[in-house]
Write the structure tokens for this entry.
Amino acid sequence: MGPVDYVQVALTAPEVAPLLTGLRQEYDARYGHGAGESVLDVDAGEFESPTGAFVVLVDDGTTVAGGGIRRIDETVVEIKRMWTNPDYRRQGYAIRMLRELAGLARQLGYQTVRLETGHAQPEALALYRRLGFVEIGSYGPYENATAFELDLDAVTAKPRH
């Protein structure tokens, strides 16, 4: 595989379309027909500057991975729309994306990152736990979601390996 570059884009950018399609298909497969419609539950404007951002990793025109951050309040940001192209999984792209999004959150002045995932995504649950995210009570519209939080100050205090 060739080099992969981060690109900060609007949620409506062409590079994001494969990500949203992939998420819809994945949610439908894991949670049942219609579950993929949840990718439309947040207005695209919430992922834009100055309070949010959306980033994709692109490899020679192919969207490899992506994710966005959106403001919850003045100190807390939420990561949403995390996805990795199935052809690129198990290569560290999700970790790179999480680090990039956490870095953007810090630059925008946030102190805490939150996210939610579902029971049918054991790979995501394991990844977030391994990276130091702490399980918290559900805060969003999904009753059965598992919610996590990461203190960005604690992350920057840890040495990187």
Summary: The longest helix spans residues 17-31. The chain has one domain: 5-157. The beta strands are 5-8, 53-59, 62-71, 76-84, 112-117, 134-136, 146-151.
